[in-house]
UniProtKB/TrEMBL annotation:
Protein's recorded name: Lactaldehyde reductase
Alcohol dehydrogenase iron-type/glycerol dehydrogenase GldA domain sequence ranges: 13-179
Organism lineage string: Bacteria, Bacillati, Actinomycetota, Coriobacteriia, Coriobacteriales
Keyword Oxidoreductase: yes
Cross-referenced PANTHER family: ALCOHOL DEHYDROGENASE (PTHR11496), LACTALDEHYDE REDUCTASE (PTHR11496:SF106)
One Pfam assignment: ADH_Fe_C
Amino acid sequence: MAVNRFVLNNISYHGSGAIKEIPGELTRRGYQKAFVCSDPDLVKFGVTAKVTDLLDEAGIAWKLYSEIKPNPTIKNVQDGVAAYQASGADCIVTIGGGSSMDTAKAIGIIAENPEFADVTSLEGVAPTKKHAVFTIAVPTTAGTAAEVTINYVITDPEKVRKFVCVDVNDIPDVAVVDPDMMASMPAGLTAATGMDALTHAIEGYTTKGAWELSDMFHLKAIEIISRSLRDAVAEARSGQPGSGREGMALGQYIAGMGFSNVGLGIDHAMAHTLSAHYDTPHGVACAMLLPVAMEYNKPVVAERLADVARAMGVDTTGMTVDEAADAAIAAVRQLSADVDIKPTCDGLVEADLDQLAEDALADACFPGNPRDADHAAVVELFCKVMA
Ligand SMILES: NC(=O)c1ccc[n+]([C@@H]2O[C@H](COP(=O)([O-])OP(=O)(O)OC[C@H]3O[C@@H](n4cnc5c(N)ncnc54)[C@H](O)[C@@H]3O)[C@@H](O)[C@H]2O)c1
Ligand SMILES: [Fe+2]
């Protein structure tokens, strides 16, 4: 067997009320002041305060940084590094979706490795020497799993591109996955971020580097997400908490344990490009591309897609491998439709296709795809999500 590396959080907490563990995780290590990274809406809606109130109760000082937009930019990171340095903080607590957590991860890395202050030099596998500032990550969406991944994604608005940074030094030390932190998500955000998580699990299961240990996480994640997402969206609509939200909190984390270690594929490469050009929410971009990417990859991963169908609860008895793979693609389309995700991308026009394909081919997720694709093939795939 080839040598495979696996990186996970040192400690993770799961379940309703898990955020109560945060003060103790800081004080037992002697940290004095937390740099709290969260986005402006989460501050406004009182989600960030659920954690900062606990810090106050425990007498732990903190300084807020919230200049973070969805699909965070180089400037969000650089301003954050300056704010961190001015704050006198000795640790980071990040509360938010992938945008807040990714910004915090980049800030924590640059604070300890200032030679990467330009941010863009972190793209790809970044040769940083020091581990990021001690970080506790608290997700408020059930999707990106940035709390357990060694990746972060930053947008370069000048070049109209998102870039992925991969670095074992950036994994948050502690993840606190508390479904109560996700309870205020509206239905649309629950659906989009949940489909991001499903995309992680399916791309992670079919990516080139997949192996038995990562398979274990991805199959379980597909199973939990497929049975939980519709309920989570219904719970978001009704405002009633339930097992859907809890399942999504866990399922997305398990997907992250897998894909962070083996990579993704063409869906994410193309999704990053759509978000950079049209500010498409990440989960929406992933969801609309998922059946398209599965169809494209089917000739080389049909058996694996048949496993995906079974993990999604499809009874494949009597089906050929080909039929079972098609059933997986149909099940994904149905799930997307059931949670009201549009199958086409707003803003996508023919004139942009060449540039989009070029950017997707250059994305760090692209080499993980199990089937090669040239420029013309990627243009054709983008056409399939054009309205
Ligand atoms: N690091 C990784 O491994 C990884 C993986 C996938 C995606 N990403 C990146 O993560 C980003 C997307 O993150 P995201 O999908 O979690 O969304 P997000 O962080 O961009 O947040 C989207 C919106 O949802 C709001 N929101 C978040 N939680 C909420 C809650 N509980 N209640 C109400 N509103 C809430 C935010 O305020 C924001 O306006 C993208 O930049 C993507 O590229 C990173
Ligand atoms: Fe993603």
